[in-house]
Amino acid sequence: MTALTTAAGTVPSHPLLDAARLRLEDHLRHVGPIPWAVPLVRELEAAGLTGRGGGGFPVARKLTVAASAAAATGRVPLVVANGAEGEPASAKDRRLLAHAPHLVLDGLQLAAAAIGADRAHVLVAPAALVAVQAALVERAGVDRVPVEVTVAAERFVAGEESAVVAALEGRPALPGDKLRRVVESGVHGRPTAVQNVETLAHLALIARFGAGWFRSRGTATEPGTALVTVSGALDRPGVVEVAHGTPLRAVLDGAGLRHPAPVLVGGFHGAWLAPHEVGVATFSRASLGGYGAATGAGVLIALPPGVSGMVETARIAAYLAGQSARQCGPCQGGLPRMADVLGRIAAGDRDPRLVAELHRLAGLTAGRGACHHPDGTVRLVRSALRVFGTDLGAIS
Ligand SMILES: Cc1cc2nc3c(=O)[nH]c(=O)nc-3n(C[C@H](O)[C@H](O)[C@H](O)COP(=O)(O)O)c2cc1C
Ligand code: SF4
To answer: Domain check: are 288 and 333 in the same one?
Structure first.
């Protein structure tokens, strides 16, 4: 596809990656000036943009709730660009911030203007800090609200939105109170719209090129593209931009998949798909939901030949069990116990009671944490049991 040029700027054919420009001058020449006058929330609603940080929440709705909470309480709202990227298998947010920081920062400013925020924050992984700081220096005179940069803790749960609020308040970056909705009462009690950095980059392009342009890629129910980090048994691992509805196999073949393989979809909180399922599924919530998976934060990991899926799952579960602060019951008990049982299976223990114990622990753990960390871990474990065999004899 060739890029078109309009009054707003050059319409990128491969939206996020084509728009990558490190210097402000080049960026604004390429995609056009920041369109402050656009009725943003209406355009986002028409575009159907959903969050790209994992949860897939509609962006127009979140901004509307933040603005309404601000009006109801008289407290000035804030916006936060979440670039914590705690998921070890994901590199998309770092890549985006390192190559197109101005697109994210435009989105942050536009979101701030749309809800009447007087301040914005960027929570950034250490690897992208320099690019973001350099970009902010260039933007003096362009930005309408001041932006504060905070370096994210290198921990899986650091990007969960209540952990983001804690970090911005100067507390340890751990998830907190489930009853308090961040969008209504976030940083120091102010309504806070936390958006993933990729979400903000899409927002900045939709503001310029419109909902119709955004909807020209993807499907009617899941419009647009998403950044996907592909890794594992591939010749060309990395970050690619994928239109929703693209066959999973096409994405993996494009990255040099060597052999049909089980694939972990959605990252460490995701779900395994068997090779024949990978052959028919598409990159969309509608398709992946049938296998208990989701597009999540866009991670695909192809299991290398000769590596046991159960051993890999045991390794990831042990990592996840170690990542919480063990504040809640499921993270104190369920996660470490599931990791232990998986470790025994991975080490070759074929006691048939182990699988039943995993199912029991998963049932006790799901839905009981203050955040979704236990649920994500349960999803991973249940999918491993489904794909790699439900009786010990079948476990590979
Ligand atoms: C354990 C856990 C870790 C998370 N880590 C991240 C993260 O690193 N980056 C991110 O953008 N969202 C992360 N999220 C999702 C955030 O809580 C939040 O939904 C998201 O930042 C909102 O932005 P979005 O609507 O634009 O996706 C995480 C959620 C959970 C439960
Ligand atoms: S569920 Fe786990 S990760 Fe989430 S807040 Fe509780 S202890 Fe922390």
So the answer is: no
CATH value at residue 190 = 3.40.50.11540
What is the model's pTM?
0.94
Give the number of the atom of ligand 1 that is nearest the alpha carbon of residue 371.
Answer: 31
Q: What are phi and psi of 114, to 5 degrees?
A: -65, -30
Alpha-carbon distance of 169 to 8, in angstroms, equals 38
- pLDDT tens, position by position, 96-140: 999 999 999 999 999 999 999 999 999 999 999 999 999 999 999
- Name residues whose C-beta falls within 8 Å of residue 232's C-beta, 6 or more positions apart in sequence: 261, 263, 264, 300, 301, 302, 303, 304
Q: Which atom of ligand 2 is nearest to the CA of 332?
A: 7
Q: Are residues 110 and 165 in the same domain?
A: yes
Specify the ligand 1 atom closest to the Cα of 90: 8
In this structure, the answer to whether residues 249 and 334 fall within a common structural domain is no
Task: Give per-residue pLDDT as tens, 11-45.
Answer: 566 678 777 778 999 999 999 999 999 999 999 99
The CA 19 to ligand 2 mean position distance, Å, reads: 37
Q: Please, which pLDDT band fits residue 179 given cuts at 50, 70 and 90?
A: confident
Å from CA of 266 to ligand 2 middle: 20
- The CB of 85 under 6 Å from ligand 1? The reply is yes
Q: Is the same domain home to 68 and 142?
A: yes
Q: Does the CB atom of residue 82 touch ligand 1 within 6 A? A: yes
